[in-house]
């Protein structure tokens, strides 16, 4: 057994997933998992840090350690649940919590120097101390230093575990932001391709919270009660991000309620109709990215969106000639794929395996990713 734990908290900020994996070569077996929500006060601070404000450095410094504390609680709960001791785990791979992602930099008029960056919180030193396990973190900044987007990073993992001999495949990850990995047949000299397609759940979750007080639209039921507004959908789809060529990545810095409200302002729509239209935005941009960039007819769906049956039905309607299944069919639960990816990235770090794919991120070369924080 070679145990690794992967920690993932995505754009939706709904908490942390801790996934225990047994990794040998390219065989990744997910053994168990734990999900923990953020405390309300920390979640409020993290939402605040996603936009410019006052006292940002103080807030960021304390939130950095608070995220590590929540991550450590998830790890320790997972250890208790499985009966494993810390010394049974080779390493933790921690994604951290992204609060800003500007790989091409922010506008100079906002007072920034012209360097791109990405910022994830969750102090790996504190995490190592609180768990008694070596931690590998900060996976994205090496790719940005090499001129890349720093995202998405999961395609390297998807290639390792989901590619098949003789057949191409698309992996569609629907988290807060949706992304695709286009996998050539295993062993093929063709490059892996992939990019963020746009909003996954982030806009739907934010709109749902604002109008219903619920953190997300369970099974897409609220969206199903609404009607897609063609005028609003057309405005949303005109955003320049959707026609940009890859490599490209995005986040809630771009796709947020301010962006939505600006386009919604001239219209007077029922909240459920907006929710239905946001779901349509996700399915349109994701399906268009698949059909325009790959001839593969086999699509594996993972991430939280895989559990939204309304979204999955709409996606199948947009892709009638495709085989659309969840990653369960390939041996990994949809909610565990991203956590398993960061467990694999920790394994890759220790075994000096590149964790990025230049054809995906735009980096000048492949590189071993991560920063090592021993106990």
From TrEMBL:
What pathway does the UniProt record associate with this protein?
Answer: Cell wall biogenesis; peptidoglycan recycling; Amino-sugar metabolism; 1,6-anhydro-N-acetylmuramate degradation
Which reaction is catalysed here? 1,6-anhydro-N-acetyl-beta-muramate + ATP + H2O = N-acetyl-D-muramate 6-phosphate + ADP + H(+)
Recall the taxonomic lineage recorded for the source organism. Answer: Bacteria, Pseudomonadati, Pseudomonadota, Gammaproteobacteria, Alteromonadales
Q: What does this protein do?
A: Catalyzes the specific phosphorylation of 1,6-anhydro-N-acetylmuramic acid (anhMurNAc) with the simultaneous cleavage of the 1,6-anhydro ring, generating MurNAc-6-P. Is required for the utilization of anhMurNAc either imported from the medium or derived from its own cell wall murein, and thus plays a role in cell wall recycling.
Q: Which residues bind ATP?
A: 10-17
Keywords attached to this entry: ATP-binding, Carbohydrate metabolism, Kinase, Nucleotide-binding, Transferase
Can you name the source organism? Alteromonas salexigens
Question: What molecular function does GO assign, one term?
Answer: kinase activity
- Provide the gene name from the record: anmK
Query: What's the superkingdom here?
Result: Bacteria
Instruction: Describe the family membership recorded for this protein in Swiss-Prot or TrEMBL.
Output: Belongs to the anhydro-N-acetylmuramic acid kinase family.
* The name this protein goes by in its record: Anhydro-N-acetylmuramic acid kinase
Recorded E.C. number(s)? 2.7.1.170
Q: Known CDD domains for this protein? A: ASKHA_NBD_ANMK
